[in-house]
Amino acid sequence: MSPSNSTDPHAAGGIDWCRAPAAAVDLNAREAAISRQGNLTKPPGALGRLEDIAIQLAALQGRETPGVDRAWISVFAADHGVAAAGVSAFPQEVTAQMIANMATGGAAISVLAKRIGAEIELIDLGTVAPVAPHPMIRDAAIAPATANLAEGPAMSPVQLEQALGEGAAAVERARASGAELYIAGEMGIGNTTAATALAAGLLGRPAAELVGPGTGLDHAGLTRKRALIDAALARHAEQLSDPAAALACLGGFEIAAMAGAYIACAQQGLPALVDGFISSAAALAACRLCPGAADWMLLAHASAEPGHQAIVAALGKQPLLDLGMRLGEGSGAAAAFPLLRLACQLHAEMATFAEAGVAEKAREA
Ligand SMILES: O=C(O)c1ccc[n+]([C@@H]2O[C@H](COP(=O)([O-])O)[C@@H](O)[C@H]2O)c1
Ligand SMILES: Cc1cc2nc[nH]c2cc1C
């Protein structure tokens, strides 16, 4: 379909759609859920953050008793020009190899998706090594890799638009399938360098405050990675006050696609469960572009990558789990998903004090 006769706002060209505000949350449903929580047969607050999850989801789904039975996982994969600078413990061809492993069911996210009953799709945004066609893999290659962010912008404005649009298109597919919760995962050797640079750029922090070992860099590698990120921040300094320009200069195709997906989720009213370090950097970019986007996000877990804490603080949210995970792929979000489902089931299925004939807490005189 040509852009001129398309009804898809993302196909109209440009990235202005990203700056439109998020959908409003339903404060009446939120109040009703808070009230219901207060009537369930437990001391008030005794289910801790499981109560908060049900209340947030009630506000997002616009009903007193929300439900998240159907999750959708989009894994966005791409290679990074900066990998040539020796900033990862693994070789670049692992990106393509892991896409194939995800398709054949051997990756952590493959097992998790199957076990939580989620639909999963793999989106290849461009890898240096070839990826054999497979029904689960969507070929959306933008380029074999981004350019080296230490030497110039990682991607062109047109490539940024394509990547953001791929994220929005994934959310369209999730919604069409009836998904109630969206998970973005990623795979890309070198992408902790891009995510660290992007987050540092957006937060105005030096690399030293955010950089970490990623897949397991040694001390010398970490020193190299930190210096490279600082050099990239200095090179692109004038661009960093504009989140779209920061994303183009320092991001990756999969990071931009995740940002586009989070924005589309927020604008179209689909709750997103954000995974680890790279996903959170994309979520931060999404929040800077789209007013209100943070309302539609839950943070699944605290990544072991040290810079995650700074991003989490900027997002103003608390991760649900802290399992020392640092895999990516959407794995932490998939691991947290059953908790969301349980939180909704408790909220919907527990008896109230009145229903069960249980005496309520004595009122203070
Ligand atoms: O999401 C995280 O918390 C996370 C933390 C560290 C590494 N990763 C994964 O490891 C890869 C990037 O690591 P690196 O060292 O190559 O930059 C990429 O495929 C990510 O999915 C993911
Ligand atoms: C093997 C491997 C699997 C991954 N999954 C996400 N990032 C990864 C990085 C490596 C190296």
Automatic annotation (TrEMBL):
Pathway as given in its UniProt record = Nucleoside biosynthesis; alpha-ribazole biosynthesis; alpha-ribazole from 5,6-dimethylbenzimidazole: step 1/2
- GO biological process terms, semicolon-separated: cobalamin biosynthetic process
Q: Which GO terms describe its molecular function?
A: nicotinate-nucleotide-dimethylbenzimidazole phosphoribosyltransferase activity
Q: Name one Pfam family in it.
A: DBI_PRT
UniProt entry keywords in alphabetical sequence: Cobalamin biosynthesis, Glycosyltransferase, Transferase
The reactions it catalyses are: 5,6-dimethylbenzimidazole + nicotinate beta-D-ribonucleotide = alpha-ribazole 5'-phosphate + nicotinate + H(+)
Specify whether Glycosyltransferase is a keyword of the entry.
Answer: yes
**EC numbers on record:** 2.4.2.21
- Residue spans making up a coiled coil are none
Q: Which residues cross the membrane?
A: none
Q: Which residues form the active site?
A: 329
SUPFAM superfamilies, alphabetized:
Nicotinate mononucleotide:5,6-dimethylbenzimidazole phosphoribosyltransferase (CobT)
Tell me yes or no: is NAD among this UniProt entry's keywords: no
- Which NCBIfam families does the entry mention? cobT_DBIPRT, PRK00105.1
PANTHER family hit by this protein: NICOTINATE-NUCLEOTIDE--DIMETHYLBENZIMIDAZOLE PHOSPHORIBOSYLTRANSFERASE
Q: Which family does it belong to?
A: Belongs to the CobT family.
Write out the function statement from the record.
Catalyzes the synthesis of alpha-ribazole-5'-phosphate from nicotinate mononucleotide (NAMN) and 5,6-dimethylbenzimidazole (DMB).
Record protein name field = Nicotinate-nucleotide--dimethylbenzimidazole phosphoribosyltransferase
- From what organism does this protein derive? Halochromatium glycolicum
The taxonomy runs: Bacteria, Pseudomonadati, Pseudomonadota, Gammaproteobacteria, Chromatiales
Gene designation: cobT
